[in-house]
Amino acid sequence: MSDGKHVIGQVPATHGKDHHRGFNDAMEDALGQLSKEVGAGHYAVDVVYSAHVDVSNPGTVAFYSVTLTRQ
Questions:
Q1: Domain count across the chain
Q2: Is 1 within the bounds of a domain?
């Protein structure tokens, strides 16, 4: 998803407790979208990692997101 300045990569949680893999997949999704929008080059971006969780006992991650904001 993109609004012209922000690109959001989002993936469902499929790796159990290996949260780093979920965030890595979300980052790859966001970078792929950014590449399609702006093309090759060097860009300064802010990176925000987030997770949407289902709160229960124990809680679980539903999906991972990475937001890239061009500076």
A1: 1
A2: no
pLDDT tens profile 9-35:
999 999 888 999 999 999 999 999 999
CA count, 13 A, side-chain hemisphere, 32: 10
When pLDDT is cut at 50, 70 and 90, the band that residue 41 belongs to is confident
d(CA 50, CA 6): 14
**Domain presence at residue 57:** yes
In a domain, 60, yes or no: yes
Taking the C-alpha atoms of residue 10 and residue 20, their distance in angstroms, rounded to an integer, is: 14
Grouping H, G, I as helix, E, B as strand and the rest as coil, residue 24 is helix
Q: Answer yes or no: is 37 within a domain.
A: yes
Count of other CB atoms within 10 angstroms of residue 56: 7
Report the distance separating Cα 71 and Cα 69, nearest Å. 6
